[in-house]
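Tutorial handout. Part one gives the primary structure; part two gives the three-dimensional structure as tokens.
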Amino acid sequence: MPGLIAGLPSPPLATLGPELGELSAFALAIGFSPLHIGLLLLVLLGPNPLRRGGLFVAGWLVTSVLAVTLLLTVGHGFLLSMDKGTHHRTGIDLLAAGALLALALKELLSREEEGEQPGWTRKLDQFCAMPLPLLLGLSAILQVASPDDLFLYAKAAGSLLTASLVRSQELLATGVFALVSGMLLIVPFTAVLILGPSKVLPMLERAKTWLFNQGDLLVGLVSLALAVYLGWQGIDGLRMA
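Part two.
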């Protein structure tokens, strides 16, 4: 849909391949949350899996949409410039790189020291035993509470601000971002929905065991890769400023 922002024509969403690719990378990094995936697997293995699992996934998607929409509203309200080299974008790049690097080192080093399942896995049963409204509220808070996830949400919003989209395009791109961020939750829930809990129970058990053993390692590696990328973007922005 054509539109005008600051006197310039807004590009059609179909031409935003690089921006959507970057959004998808940030969304997958946010979505690879062993805590949330582990919680969903336990919910799907418990009573009323379709109802509880569906609400859990819906809560994740709504939280992602609200987080990006709020940041976009703030960005428009303060007229933040997110072009490469501007201090807003460069600052977010460097801060996000630092937060992700700290997370990567924490996950990788603590895994080597402990050599066993991380401590958070032992708390999931307690979370799953909570009443559903409390579980959904806690899940939403945890989804946006960590600094690295906040920076990634800010980077996603910054990418949309840079693309100079009209509001309808921003909403569509935000929806795509939310769907990609929830893909690792949507897939197991869809499997249960289509095949039934009994047929996928062994697969869910194996997935849970693998996640508890390897989740921190993968989070560390993904965070390290993103830290390098955002650090390079930030340094490149400093050179352009």
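Part three, for discussion. The beta strands are 4-5, 8-9. The longest helix spans residues 197-240.
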